[in-house]
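ok so heres the complex, two chains, lmk if somethin looks off
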Amino acid sequence: MADLSALSSFLVAAVGLGVPLALAALGEMVTERTGVINIGLEGSVIWGALGGALGALAAGPYAGLACGVSTGALAALCFALFAVRLGTDQIITGTAVTIGSLGFTGAVFQSRFGATGIALELPTVAALELPLLSEIPILGPALFNQAAPAYIAYLLAPLLAWLLFRTRWGLAVRAVGESPDAAHAAGVPVIRTRLLATVFGGALAGLAGAHLSLVHTGTFAENMSAGKGFIAIAVVVLGRWSPWGVVAAALFFGAAEALQFALQAWDSELPYPLFLALPYLLSLAALVGWFGRARAPGGLGSPWPTARR
Amino acid sequence: MLTRKALRSTIAAAALLATAACGSDNTDRSSSNSADAPSVALLTSGPVSDAGWHAGAYEGLQLIRDSLRFRVSHQQTRTPAEFDEAFISYAQAGYGLIFGHGFEYQDAATRVGPQFPNVTFVVSSGSRPGPNVVPLVFHLNEASYLAGMAAGAVTQSGIVGMVGGVEIPAAKGTFIAFEAGVKAVRSDAKLLETHTGDWYDVSAAKEATAAQLRQGADILIHNLDAASFGFFQAVREARKAGGDAWALGMNLDQNDVAPDVIVASAMIDLPAVFLSTAEAWEKGTLRGVARYAGLRAGVVDFVPNPAQEGVIPLDALERIDSAREAIIAGTLEVPRIEFVEEEAAADG
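and the predicted structre for the whole thing:
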């Protein structure tokens, strides 16, 4: 019984660490499906964490989630206006958005709470226990006794799978990503599709950030995104640009991280960097051995229209 | 020839990067001090809003401004590549005393030092003195040892936790001393040690702490920057769930950072150290040797949280007090990591 409770608390930790990655990666997957790689995702995550914190302090945890979604979307809109509308280099623009966001959120936090900071105790989003599902042994409490963002991630996977592969809209999105010229010739508004997909990705990354501050930790600190936006971009590759794959990869990565912390607390003999490397080593192994080679959307990373004067 | 597209890219990137720079360069231009006042600069490698290690340095800088009427400036550097550049730009701008707050600035200070013989570079937790490079060595391990004694007295389960960021020498020293302090009081205690690899990753710190709590740790210390907020949250949640867990603060007096879960802090009075360093610099006595700050100088200490009086048993507090006296008298040697080369200065 003791082992079972250890297992289920490990799974709770795995889902807690995996959900923000799943949300951010699902959004980035849609963005990348239109041919845009948003390296500024990290910026949306930290804006979501701060927006969530400020919104929750002003009007409660759910307002905080909404606020996090909006601030994350705004950061992505900023990226999209340059990278999609003006056709600037996506990598450089995304890096600028990330660095700018880390600086700006810090400035806002310090101006609101003092330069030397305080350990905020935020109102957190309570877990909603799903009847029946949460009674599934072992997996139930971990997966189905979670706060709203986790359920959004679960629901988005089938919804996005259906939208992307079963609807005209999804076909248009994928066409824009594979071959923007062909999509344009077929009458698909390339710029608008890319803009919307990028903002959608930012909104989900913002929700991921709000999950960090309002669900997982109940506090905010500068730089607390700590590279999760970048890991989410890797998770998209690991999940092979498919909604189910991305959610599975995110939870897998979360589980590897949770395992790593459990092992470190268990055994202090081995050097800790070995443990820290564990999630990345497992991901590499999965990338090699899982299901063959991944193929990125054909037009990924290239601005459109390409031949501009 | 620059194409319109390339031009647009460049302008866009420049605009975004410029706003980014504004976001984290906190040069204090509001100071009323005259322009010819001595100028002191501070570099931190992380945000000063961590209510801990970096915050203490920033408070020190403010204290220098307010007490000595010096002109001050602070800048947060992001990557090691920026360390040299930041030192050089401050030195060229006429700053006479530049603090690099963290051992990570040592190499850059050693490289840049010889180019600016009239500028003094101070490296917190530094390891290599130079003619104008001054490592500040904090014997925080002494306070950590006393915190360990408190933990050994408070723990019911006999399992004590330590959550760190990156195992740099100074941080490792605090954990080694902490462990010795725990064992001095309770020789059968089990110590758990986790590093998250990141000073700011709040959720990693929270999860690492939660993993230790699940393994039975009931009093834990950290050595983190802003990620400590997640460490305190995990202990707070364990208490709310009915557990009897406590946290210890580190680096600064953090007792008021999370007064409901912190029983005591192992602290450095960073503002006082910064102020006395700036005063020594003004008098011209700050030269080429490491400066030590420990219990004896009164700038490192173990401070119980008045809001949690009674958690640490009275007899344990008495033992801690006599250990403090013994450390000051030199009769009790606290384990530490020796990382200063060419030990030159007398202990003070």
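quick notes: The mean pLDDT of chain A is 91. thats all i got rn
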